[in-house]
Amino acid sequence: MTPKHSCYAPVPPAEGCISTEALDDVLLIGINRPAKRNGWTPAMFRQLAEAYTRLDDEAALRVGVLHAFGSHFTAGLDLPVIAEYLRSGHRLVPEGLVDPHDLGLPGYRRRSKPLVAAVKGITFTVGIELMLAADIVIAADDCRFSQLEVQRGIMPGGGATLRMAERAGVGNAMLHLLTADEFGSAEAYRLNFVQKVVPAGQELDEALHIARRIAAQAPLAVAATRQNVLQAIEQGPLAAIAATVLTQHRLADSEDAAEGVRAFVERRPARFCGR
Q1: What string of pLDDT tens digits covers the 275 residues of the chain?
Q2: Are the C-beta atoms of residues 40 and 2 closer than 8 Å to each other?
Q3: All domains of the chain, ordered by start, with CATH?
Q4: Alpha carbon distances (Å) from 265 to 94, 154, 258
């Protein structure tokens, strides 16, 4: 398979970093601390929020792809470093930025553009929570998942207790949350935690392929459709249905809706502008 992205991994500082690369209208967002199995530090959390905020704020960007350098997605938090930072009273993500966990917490923005996650190898704790906060997840067939906070005397705080039950049902969520067991890509697919499983090494190309397909659609319609799905989950189907009529009127008046009709009549691919 011909690579569709840069193979170059920027050398990170000791505390790791988030490396970004804009490929036309897709923003690659790379977790970059492979020497420590991409263990998360405060700097990485801040930079991830900044990357998500960039995705939302730059009009030319339509879709994000979250991935990781090295053999693993992440082994989780660098606990000694994170614990010391939190004891100092600091927040991992400064207020005013997009919250990567997309929990709707006061003081933080929610992401409005689609995000595809490509996971591989060890994908523990915060790795599962970040992928569940994405819209679509592509998993390599070598993934090892574990939500193991109960082994550390704490509970998951980044959305696993909410989204595992929402995707897989309460019993399945409890099975993995309360035992801290390790499970593979096939089980994650069965539980609807991931949407596709591909041979290891192909996960990023597949995620990028899907991202480009999304980016080719009408941006306003994509954002509205995504928001309506989330509204149905968070506020219930009646709220989502009520919002549909006004949203459809707004979309029908857009330049992209007119372009969609023209493209249909002229039997050609549409060229959407996001207006």
Answers
A1: 334 555 567 889 999 999 999 999 999 999 999 999 999 999 999 999 999 999 999 999 999 999 999 999 999 999 888 888 878 778 889 999 999 999 999 999 999 999 999 999 999 999 999 999 999 999 999 999 999 999 989 899 999 999 999 999 999 999 999 999 999 999 999 999 999 999 999 999 999 999 999 999 999 999 999 999 999 999 999 999 999 989 998 998 988 888 888 888 888 888 888 88
A2: no
A3: 17-215 (3.90.226.10), 219-266 (1.10.12)
A4: 48, 58, 11
Q: What are the Cα distances from residue 172, in Å, to 18, 129, 141, 188, 192?
A: 32, 16, 21, 11, 11
Tokens describing residue 218: 């009408």
DSSP 91-146: -SS-TTSBPTT----TT-B---S-EEEEE-SEEETHHHHHHHHSSEEEEETT-EEE
Please tell me the distance from the alpha carbon of residue 182 to that of residue 179, in angstroms, as a whole number: 9
Burial of 124-162, coded b for 16+ CB within 10 Å and e otherwise, reads: bbbbbbbbbbbbbbbbbbbbbbbbbbeeeeeebebbbbb
Task: Please state the pTM of the whole predicted model.
Answer: 0.93
